[in-house]
C-alpha cells in the first residue's frame, strides 16, 4: 500500500531522509525557497519573469511555516532534507530547519516536475531514476534567466532518459501541466545547454541509459538556488534538490483540459 502524503511527511519529520521521486503518486510535489522579507519582491518578480523554471503554486505569509498545499504541514520539518544558504554559499544541509527559521522569512512553493511523473509513468513511459532508485539528475545550463531586481542566474534543468519512440508522448503529457514546468525545454544533445558531461550532474545522481534512450530536459525548480548563489542572497532556506515537499494537492489539479475540437 502506498504511503499517503501525510504519512510521508510524518516519516520525514521523524528523520527519514530519501529523495521523493516516485513517492505518493498522484499528489503534487513542490520546491521550496524561503527568503528574508526584504528580498521577497525580488524573488517574486524573478519567478514571474521566469515562469518555466519557477512556476509559483503558493507564497506564504511573512514568518509562516504553513502552506495551503498541505494543511497541517510544517515546512521546517516535513521535507526530507533542506539546504541553508548564507551570502550565496551553501552553509548547511540538514533534515530539520525549525531552529533556523526566522520571523521575517517568506516561503515560495514552486511546482516540481516530479508531479507530472505519475501521469507520464501511467502512460507507459519508463522513469529511469525511479527504476534505479536514484535521485533525478539536474544541471546548471548556459541559458540565463531574465533578471529581476537583485536576482539573476542561470536556468537549471532536470533530465530523464526516454525511449526515442516515447519522447513525443512524454512531452505532450508534461506540456499539459505548465504549473509544474510543462513540456521539455530541450531534447537531445546536452552540449547545446552547455552540459559537458551528462554523467556528471550538478545536483542529484547520474542515471543509466537503456539502448534507444534519448536525453530529455525539463526546466527545474532548483533554478532559484542557482540564482541565490549567483546573486549572493544573504540568507535562504531551500529544499535539497530532489527532496521535495509532498503536498495533499492531487496532480490532476494542474492538468490543463484539452478543448473539445467538435
TrEMBL record:
Write down the EC number.
Answer: 4.2.1.-
Q: Which InterPro entries match?
A: D-Glu_cyclase, Putative_hydro-lyase, UPF0317
Matching entries from SUPFAM superfamilies are given as: PSTPO5379-like (SSF160920)
Source organism superkingdom = Bacteria
Q: Which Pfam families match?
A: D-Glu_cyclase
Alphabetically, the GO molecular function entries are: lyase activity
Keywords of the record, alphabetical order, are: Lyase
Top EC class for this record: lyase
Keyword S-adenosyl-L-methionine appears in the UniProt entry = no
As given in the record, the signal peptide range reads: none
Keyword Lyase (UniProt): yes
Gene3D superfamilies reported for this sequence:
PSTPO5379-like, PSTPO5379-like domain
Sorted alphabetically, which HAMAP family does this protein's record hold? Hydro_lyase
Record-stated family: Belongs to the D-glutamate cyclase family.
| Protein name in the entry | Putative hydro-lyase O4328_07590
